[in-house]
Design goal:
Blueprint lengths: L22 E6 L2 E6 L25 H7 L2
Antiparallel strand pairs: 1-2
């Protein structure tokens, strides 16, 4: 597909973005890459359903518990 570049940029047909709410636009060398942003990124789910493990200071000393083998 070809499209004309205007003073406002370009238009991407909605049909190419079916189900997409947000995109990230990157320039990689001479290429422009449009990447759909997934709202279900696991990093955003961290802490939503915490597990009780009997360690009251896990959020403060997380590295200690991860790397020391406690």
């Amino acid at each position: 597909m070809r499209t004309q570049v205007t003073e406002n940029g370009i238009t991407i047909p909605r049909g190419m973005l079916e189900g997409v709410v947000e995109v990230e636009i990157r320039q990689q060398g001479k290429n422009i890459v449009v990447i759909p942003v997934n709202d279900d990124d696991p990093i955003f789910r961290i802490g939503k359903e915490p597990v009780k493990g009997g360690v009251p200071d896990a959020s403060v000393n997380l590295d200690e518990y991860l790397y020391s083998g406690k």
